[in-house]
Amino acid sequence: MTAQQPLHIHILGICGTFMGGLALIARELGYTVSGSDQNVYPPMSTQLEEQGIRLMNGYKAENLDCGPDLVVIGNAMSRGNPEVEAVLNRNLPYISGPQWLAEHVLQKRWVLAVAGTHGKTTTTSMLSWILEFNGFKPGFLIGGIPLNFGVSARLGESDFFVIEADEYDCAFFDKRSKFVHYRPRTAVLNNLEYDHADIFENLDAIKKQFHHLVRTIPGEGLIIAPSCEQNIAEVLEMGCWTPVVKTTVDSGGDWQAELINADGSCFNVRFGGEDHGEVTWNLTGQHNVYNALAAMAAARHIGIVPKDAIEALRRFRNVKRRMEIIVKHKGLTIYDDFAHHPTAIETTLDGLRKQVGKQKILAIVEPRSNTMRLGVHTRALAESLALADSAIVYQPENLGWDLSQLPRYADNIQICGDLEEIIQTIQAQADGICHIVLMSNGSFGGIYQRLKTELG
């Protein structure tokens, strides 16, 4: 590739967090980059356009008339998609995003990968920031926008690359989990629960994919896992050839956290039988304490001592849409949170409850993920909302299952069929000191801006 004749790659599904990050890295490498998506909207569209990447709204055969040398196809694309069919009919070279990344970016680099059902984005952001703060200038690809960086991906200036290692499949022609392509030297296995019901038949199918990842980690590498995660332990029992260090929020692990504040906003770090200092930060929840321990353990594997990792975490600013405060006005606080699995909802509300005590919490949930839309977690979803004083769950017309079952398991839940009803219900209940948590992995019909305008 030369500066005069850069290769042109075209990305299908470019506004997804992974594919958008890949586009940014390809642009840094000097490629001409274009892409199409069904939903072109900020913040990803803004990120991409600022880097000179041409975006096309909708999937059409004519989008390929730009003459790409290679088409990178996202995992949301399937046969029958007009642009996919045009790629095949025109005999254009194509590849999955994870394979392109492995071949063009990750080869010969020290890859630090963060896998797990929950906490991948936050932990990857923490680890990237620890490396950055300590002068390592890593590359990274994160499924969100960490506020310490302002971008979701970059090539980096060192041998180190930190990546969010997703278990979702690669493409319609490659049904392996994305992380199988990454071949990390340092791997965080945060947790493992049943999710992605649209592609995994059961929990054992996900365990099998996690073990495929374990098989790729070198004997001189490192695996980091919580001591309390039985499903991860069962994966490792299937065969492990790599040293494993354990994290815990009590005694017994290699890395230990002693909670100073019950909400996780302050904790002491122990490693190697010694105290290394306190992390005091704006994050809450025991899950984030585990995320921090994993990030510190991974950073130590490349030579960053605990006290320097702790200093970095004190300055960590989290990720957009992870309990991000979008309104704070006259006793009212509105949070935007990406939680879209019952466990994530429960741990998020637990951290907030420990922080705010008996103050009112309203939880508003859009069941938008593929697993949620299939109704797999009916009872678990209801029970995950127990710590909220009141919960509203959105029932759009095309959901596919009847949410009226939820109040059978919890009496604090109300079902609303449209956004106007949700907003009216919130207005009626949001009195005095009140914390409103909006939980969705999508745009939630623009409710965020509506509430900013009407309640802020």
Automatic annotation (TrEMBL):
Tagged with keyword Nucleotide-binding: yes
Mur ligase central domain: residues covered: 114-299
Transmembrane segments: 7-26
Domain of life of the source: Bacteria
Record key words, sorted: ATP-binding, Cell cycle, Cell division, Cell shape, Cell wall biogenesis/degradation, Ligase, Magnesium, Membrane, Nucleotide-binding, Peptidoglycan synthesis, Transmembrane, Transmembrane helix
Catalytic activity: UDP-N-acetyl-alpha-D-muramate + L-alanyl-gamma-D-glutamyl-meso-2,6-diaminopimelate + ATP = UDP-N-acetyl-alpha-D-muramoyl-L-alanyl-gamma-D-glutamyl-meso-2,6-diaminopimelate + ADP + phosphate + H(+)
Cofactors, names only: Mg(2+)
Pathway where this protein functions: Cell wall biogenesis; peptidoglycan recycling
Matching Pfam families: Mur_ligase, Mur_ligase_C, Mur_ligase_M
Function: Reutilizes the intact tripeptide L-alanyl-gamma-D-glutamyl-meso-diaminopimelate by linking it to UDP-N-acetylmuramate.
Family (UniProt): Belongs to the MurCDEF family. Mpl subfamily.
Listed name of the protein: UDP-N-acetylmuramate--L-alanyl-gamma-D-glutamyl-meso-2,6-diaminoheptandioate ligase
Organism encoding this protein: Methylomonas subterranea
